[in-house]
Design brief:
Elements: H1 13-91
Length: about 90
């Protein structure tokens, strides 16, 4: 960057003019990158919350299976086994 004669080091108009379109593009690119980064972070956060919620739901369903369905299936299996043993015994000569 070259300072024009007679301008003070704190004068910002000269660098802004020198970097004009390139500076605007750089700022726009930085803004776009920041926005994209924030969007990605929000998506990750949202998906983590969704995964945690679904994991809790799966755990609840597994507990329901262990508490409700397995005892019923065990009784049904025992009843079928008993029925089959009685049927086999009746068929034996």
């Amino acid at each position: 960057m070259v300072l024009a004669a007679g301008s003070s080091p704190l004068d910002l108009t000269n660098p802004l003019i020198q970097y004009g379109a390139v500076g605007c593009l750089a700022l726009a690119s930085l803004f776009w990158a920041w926005t994209l980064y924030k969007s990605a972070q929000e998506s990750v956060k949202r998906e983590r919350e969704r995964a945690d919620r679904l994991e809790a739901e799966i755990q609840k369903l597994n507990n329901d299976i262990h508490e409700k369905y397995i005892p019923v299936l065990t009784r049904v299996t025992d009843a079928l086994q008993s029925f089959l043993w009685r049927t086999v015994r009746k068929d034996d000569p």
